Amino acid sequence: MSLHLHESVSLKPFNTFGVEVKARLFAEARSDDEVREALAEAERLGLPLLPVGGGSNLLLTGDVEALVLRMASRGLRIFEDDGERVLVEAEAGEPWHPFVLWSLEQGLSGLENLSLIPGTVGAAPMQNIGAYGVEISDVFAGLTALDRQSGELREFGLEECAFAYRDSLFKQQPGRWLILRVRFALSRKATLRLDYGPVRQRLQQEGIETPTARDVSRAICAIRSEKLPDPAELGNAGSFFKNPVVPIELAERIRAEHADLVSYPAGEGLAKLAAGWLIERAGWKDFREGDAGVHRLQALVLVNHGAATGSELLALARRIQADIERRFGVALEIEPNVI
Ligand code: EPU
User: Which residue owns the Cα nearest ligand 1 atom 33?
Assistant: First the structure.
């Protein structure tokens, strides 16, 4: 067996909230074979297997009675190139942002708006990561996953993944699929998406008239760094709630009282509300109780100022949910996986 199992391992370095809990068993898988070994080992020991990537979408509320498997496979390659459309494949354990930078260095565009998102390639399809007007479903070309029920490998195309806003088949069927590698269709000819939020304005401020994909990536890194805390400095899991989609009538009722409500069209009769706006307006921005808090610059981000437990962070989230429901009649859905 090439897999190394470790007992009673602190998961603090493996979750970006920096919550201190222990895993009963911990291992890192660098290949498909090691993933299979871990599954067999968990089965033999009668323990559940909990796969983790970068731990950036995870709230751990107690010690984990499981074999925690960190997906650590590495490898990036171009496997098809017609001079314009280029297919690339990345192993699940590749950290996301360095993968984006690698694609830009190859002269490829498509991932630039997704710069600086924490986490790994393998975790990206789970919640269809998205930012600044692009989701991975926009550039997705397929993935290979291990079916934990049958032990077989299975290839997924775009349609089968059921991608939606921060959602996918893999999120809907928790525990079934282990994503091993993901393919993306990128382009040598940049078609840039600059319309979302402050992207175009930022580039103009910098005096960039005809931006390249790399310029867009740099601008987005700058925008993100200004608003979103770096997990290495302040524990967090990015947006803690999804932006809620509500009937337009409800959005209009809120707007009647709060003219500055931020909302976006979300299809027939629906509006997507900026949850950060709701939470800020309810007075939670920069709130802190013990070490659990709300970020001072982005109310959608819960933060661990040091020694907050997962339960304390979850309790704070529940209070915010109840308050937003009471004030605005809007139900907020938690984004990270709560274990
Ligand atoms: N807003 C406030 N107060 C706040 C935060 C936001 O009023 O405290 C307002 C902003 O002024 C803006 C609007 O809400 O008008 C939207 O804010 P922002 O552009 O910061 O984006 P977001 O809707 O809060 C979403 C994603 C982020 C992604 C950004 C940019 C979700 C749950 N979050 O946040 O994704 O980076 O858009 O595309 O959809 C993540 O999922 O972890 C994440 C960081």
Answer: 239
